Amino acid sequence: MLPLQGMKVLDLTQFLAGPYCTMVLADMGAEVTKVEKFPQGDDSRRLGPFINGEGYCFAMPNRNKKSLALNLKSAKGREIFLKLAKEADVVIENFRPGVTQKLGIDYEQVAKVNPGIIYCSISGFGQYGPYSHKGGFDIIAQGFTGFMRMTGEPDGRPVKVGIAINDIAAGATAIYGILGAYIHKMKTGEGQYLDTSLVDAGLAWTVWESAAYFGAGEIPEPTGTRHRRSTPYQAYKTKDGFVTIGAGNQRLWERLCQQVLKRPEWIEDPRFIDLATRMENIDILEQEIEHILRQETTSYWVQKLDEAGIPGGPVYTYDQALNDPHVEAREMVVELDHPKLGRIKTIGIPIKFSKTPLAIREPAPLLGQHTTEKLKEIGLSEEEIERLYQEEVVYAKYGEYVKEEKS
Fold it and tell me: What kind of architecture, by CATH, is found in domain 233-315?
């Protein structure tokens, strides 16, 4: 039995923040039904690469889910949604604030038919505040939160974090919010409304940066790969690439000098004698370390660091990371069959449960793949379902009610 088996989730989200949240819930056993517009579905279905008309990007965060294609702008579509919501534990949406009210599927309307519902909204700036009406993709949030001004090389242009960090932060925040609300519901029977945003979630991750600002008025600036509070703690150039070194305390610093760099005299060097002086002379220290490291390869130095018990590693390209034997051993790349994409690879599950191990059970659904199934669950007859297809209240890209397959 999976940890969240029995939880029913209606997922109105698209792109990444919401789908990442519901992917994790689905991985843990929740029954997640994506409620998608049609004929295009979740906007991430439009992102390539494409195989047989299906997008690979959609397949990544939408595994283990079902798809119901429903016209929420129609009265019948709204009625169907509320019937599904009556039996659900969680509804999650990432429309711009105000849209769910216009559609008549907001928290207040859902709570009328299901007072125990946990209803979670993810938006760019939140449901209230001066900017709540603004749209907010990850790049907007990265700029707004200051991330782009603290990332990259000194004196360079603002740099985006390499992944959609605010999207993932918001998705992760929604996960723990939903789980907390679910535990509360189990104890009391009460549902509730949850509101998070890309901006709120991103700012919540600025732990060290906020401490420096509130404590000393320090505004974080880009430092390349350097740590703002510790050194040696960065990536250094080697003969054939880069190596990361995390000698973040005095004991590790002394090991680095003695066992790896073979410079024991640096331990008593007044420029490097403690962390404060090393930070004052960080430019000189980087030059001195790289002068040594450039003489051998990255793999040579990784081995030396490992032998000395000092945290360190290679600076990989993404393909190198995915093909590393350790990543393979941790099952962080797994394969499964998809009805259109064929045999595909996807990122594995990052947390390992000893009693209730998780698994990627199903590939991402085709658009409307489970429409008929979900309609039958709320008691509709074959004749009623066929009429809904004909009236374009519901949709399936492939299936018995499709007159012609669309690509």
Answer: 2-Layer Sandwich (3.30)
What are the extents of the domains in the chain? 8-205+329-395, 233-315
**Hey, do 8-205+329-395 and 233-315 end up sharing a CATH topology, with the first three levels equal?**
no
Q: Say if pTM beats, i.e. exceeds, 0.85.
A: yes
Q: Please tell me the CATH code under which domain 8-205+329-395 is placed.
A: 3.40.50.10540
Query: Amino acid letter at 43?
Result: D
Alpha-carbon distance 354 to 370, whole Å? 32
Q: Which residues contact 35 (CB under 8 A, 6 or more apart)?
A: 10, 11, 12, 68, 70, 72, 81, 84
Q: Tens-of-pLDDT digits for all 407 residues of the chain?
A: 999 999 999 999 999 999 999 999 999 999 999 999 999 999 999 999 999 999 999 999 999 999 999 999 999 999 999 999 999 999 999 999 999 999 999 999 999 999 999 999 999 999 999 999 999 999 999 999 999 999 999 999 999 999 999 999 999 999 999 999 999 999 999 999 999 999 999 999 999 999 999 999 999 999 999 999 999 999 999 999 999 999 989 999 999 999 999 999 999 999 999 999 999 999 999 999 999 999 999 999 999 999 999 999 999 999 999 999 999 999 999 999 999 999 999 999 999 999 999 999 999 999 999 999 999 999 999 999 999 999 999 999 997 776 544 44
138 is catalytic: no
Residue 112 host element (H or E)? helix 107-113
CB 82 within 8 A of CB 110: yes
Instruction: Please tell me which residue in 27, 42, 138, 167 is annotated as part of the active site.
Output: 167
Q: Are 54 and 67 in contact (CB under 8 A)?
A: no
CA distances from 257 to 194, 239, 301 (A): 51, 19, 13
% helix / strand / coil in the chain, to the nearest 5? 40, 15, 45
